[in-house]
Amino acid sequence: MSSYLIRGVRVLGREWTDLLLRDGVVAETGPGLDPSGAQVIEADGLVALPGLVDLHTHLREPGREDAETVETGSRAAALGGYTAVCAMANTSPVADTAGVVEQVWRLGREAGLVDVQPIGAVTVGLAGERLAELGAMAASAAAVRIFSDDGFCVADPRLMRRALEYVKAFDGIIAQHAEEPRLTEGAQMHEGEVSTRLGLTGWPAVAEEAIIARDVLLAEHVGSRVHVCHLSTAGSVDIVRQAKARGVRVTAEVTPHHLLLTDELAASYDPVFKVNPPLRTAADVTALRAALAEGVIDIVATDHAPHAVEDKECEWAYARPGMVGLETALSVVLSTGALHRDGEPDWDLIAERMSRAPARIAGLAAHGHDPAPGAPANLTLVDPAARRVVDPGELASRSRNTPYAGTELPGRIVATFLHGRPTVLDGKAVK
Ligand SMILES: NC(=O)N[C@@H](CC(=O)O)C(=O)O
């Protein structure tokens, strides 16, 4: 295996150093390392971060390979600075058996662009009626430990309780898509002033908050772990804050789009802004940014949700919810300033919320390590000074449903290394 010398990089934005990657690990660090035998990468002006980890990615394979495949989604992830992604279970067939999660896991290994960790469904067919084979998925080669019916809520409280109890045996997690279905029937966007003005049926904040409140109580009652997917309201932040203060084992994620965009965008009737949960108000955005900085929200997760053109470029009411996000996540987070300190990106905090904490929650032992001697060489190099205008045609994802088309965003991923091998160099995918 070849070795790489990354010359003059600022690890987490700190002092300049060289990094020698060899045999899949960071072999040496320090200024002026001997480059002989290594491929040299000049990293003047670049910041090294532990490879980003996404706890919430839709890869669409099996079943909707026209929208994304494990390979195209993995490439998009690598270009976004990711070295590991957790693949959601709402595929076709649903990832509710050991066979399907092993298939996704194997496809991830074959693509070899990021580590793909499958998430298993909580209920058979995501139907919310009976538990899937959680133990068999956990014991499979894919070693599943996060289970989610994402796309749907595990709405039945008794089933949710049983799922939480079941995964406790192997320290698993139930990741909940918090949406009380009776409160969101026919919903098209956030319920509020804008939905009233547009005459669209609303998805009220309380539909999310009621489920989170219930689930933190259930997790507390059975002593198990619950993770809140794509938390989107100020009220949800308050509930999670209180639960954490009581010692409940709850973690939460926020998406880049909920940190930047608001429900006012629905007034365009452009379905690219239709997403689940819906874009909320400016006050929610402010609360989410503060909660992420504070740590009440543990991580940023993309909820990368690729959709084929016919599912997205149609009337608002018929469009599928979801946005692609892997290739823009870090830039969007940088643009919000949510993880800045004194007007500059706080790279240590960014590493925590986008790499270390998601790796810890998902139990991905090879990820989330700062580049230091002996650490697995899973890392990404960012040019913080670069700016780029998002061009949907240039995305590696098979789908184009980005809400940032034509938007100028800060920061650029220059290189990504997975187990010591480059997956991205000079901002381009290596394979
Ligand atoms: N987040 C989304 O808007 N879409 C998700 C599923 C979902 O949560 O509805 C998808 O799979 O497309």
UniProtKB/TrEMBL annotation:
The keyword Protein transport does not apply. Keywords: Hydrolase, Metal-binding, Pyrimidine biosynthesis, Zinc. Binds 2 Zn(2+) ions per subunit. It comes from the Bacteria. PROSITE patterns: DIHYDROOROTASE_2 (PS00483). Zn(2+) 1 binds at H56, H58, D150, D303. One of its GO terms (biological process) is purine nucleobase catabolic process. The active site is at D303. Its cofactor is Zn(2+). Belongs to the metallo-dependent hydrolases superfamily. DHOase family. Class I DHOase subfamily. Catalyzes the reversible cyclization of carbamoyl aspartate to dihydroorotate. This is Dihydroorotase.
